[in-house]
Amino acid sequence: MASDLRTKKRLDRLRQQADALLELTQAINRNVPDSALFALFQRCLESMGVGKLALFSRRKEETVWGCLIEWGYPTSLPKLANASEVLSGKAHAIVDGDTEVEFDLAIPVEHDGDVIAYVVMGDREEGRGMSPSIRYVRFITTLTNVLVVALRNRELTAERIRTAGLERELALAGEMQSMLLPSNLPNDGHRAFSARYRPHDHVGGDYYDAVLLPDGRMAIAMADVSGKGMPAAFLMSNFQAHLHAQLDRSNTAIDDLVKSLNERVFGSAGGERFITLFLAIHDPVKRIIDYVNCGHNPPLFVPAKGPGTFLGEGCPGLGMLDSLPEVGVGQLSVEAGSKLVCFTDGLVEQENTDGEAYGEHRLQQLVESERGSGCEVLNTSIIVDWEQHRGVADPADDTALLTVHFS
Question: How many CB atoms lie within 10 A of CB 32?
Fold first, then answer.
């Protein structure tokens, strides 16, 4: 009879454990919230007499072990910077300042060879017979493994969803950005254009344009919006639309145009993003260029003869201030054979494997040495030289290049 009773009790325990495991698995499959899983986990183990338990785990990218669930201890347990050292020691105590919390048993829970959790257990009161924490240690370890692996799989699934969403966002931003760049630049008897654009893995907001004005002048723009992804692409799209609308009014002074653009960018971004811009207007009759540099990398102007110069006259980037109190306007005489090389920071700030930037000086030397070349040939020479400098170093950013030859 005693043997039959022991067998019956053992079968009841196994049935109870199987039911608990099935209930937890079904809850995981129903995708119930984490809080509900923790409550179910606690209820299962408390019904077996486990009076004290704390479950420590961590995210894959974190180093600190947090306590996911605890019961039966007199105080909340702290995060652990080194769980293996604290829980594997002989003291059997977690110390937090002046507080010391004792425990009976700490079990590492492994998955695919890695420790993914620690179960810290004890009995609420000392009593006769084997402790439930010891008696059911294998089942507790199994149940904990199921719970923590499910939580980790949820974390990985959420990360995959976020990654897929980000990839889709970047693809859409890339499509939007490519639509903003002109497919054909308006070459005529006064000016010839050539452009190159190399996007980075993370889509930014590089933008260039050349717009023929109603009175025969030409607006030349190179811009870069801060930030990446769809927010940057939307801001640049809004900026391009407003720029074109303003350029349709050929009598607008360039400084007033820049002030209007600044107000539009600040209104759209609320000061959280900004746009650097170089804007020039070429008058082929007067043979002059009026320009404003709004915090952008200074373009290089190389005359038919003599040294080149970088064009920095202007104002802060658009959208940094709610209004621009003053806008500096530069002016240049433009003779036949002169060139204007506009670019974004991805060109001159690109470093090689030694950490050396390509730099403005190297660009100026190359352009001055090839000032007699056409725009397309010159751009090819710049990109080849840039690639030689970069070597095997990864591109740091988007790279846009717009070269203008004046006749």
Answer: 14
Q: Please write the tens of the pLDDT for every residue from 246-291.
A: 888 767 799 999 999 999 999 988 888 999 999 999 999 999 999 9
Q: What is the pTM of this model?
A: 0.63
Residue-wise pLDDT tens digits, 69-107: 999 888 888 888 888 888 876 667 887 777 788 888 888
Closest C-alpha among 185, 293, 273 to residue 233: 273
CB of 278 closer than 8 Å to CB of 289: no
Domain 181-406 -> CATH class: alpha beta
Q: Residue 275's beta-bridge partner residues?
A: 225, 318
Residue range 334-355, pLDDT digits in tens: 999 999 999 999 999 999 999 9
How many whole angstroms separate alpha carbon 334 and alpha carbon 303? 7
Q: Shortest CA distance to 155 belongs to which of 83, 229, 57, 36? A: 57
Residue with structure tokens 């931003």? 173
Q: What is the CATH number of domain 2-159?
A: 3.30.450.40
Q: Tell me if domain 2-159 and domain 181-406 are identical in fold.
A: no
- The single-letter code of the amino acid at 211 is V
Please name the residue that has the structure tokens 């740091």: 396
Cβ–Cβ under 8 Å, residues 350 and 386? yes
Number of neighbouring beta carbons within 10 Å of residue 205: 28
Instruction: Decide if 58 contacts 65 (C-beta within 8 A).
Output: yes
- The count of C-alpha atoms lying within 13 angstroms of the C-alpha of 289, restricted to the half-sphere facing its C-beta, is 29
| Contact yes or no for 72/51 (Cβ under 8 A) | yes
* Residue ranges covered by each domain of the chain: 2-159, 181-406
Query: With contact defined as beta carbons under 8 Å apart, do 361 and 300 qualify?
Result: no
Cα-based distances in Å from 234 to 172, 174, 242 = 11, 11, 12
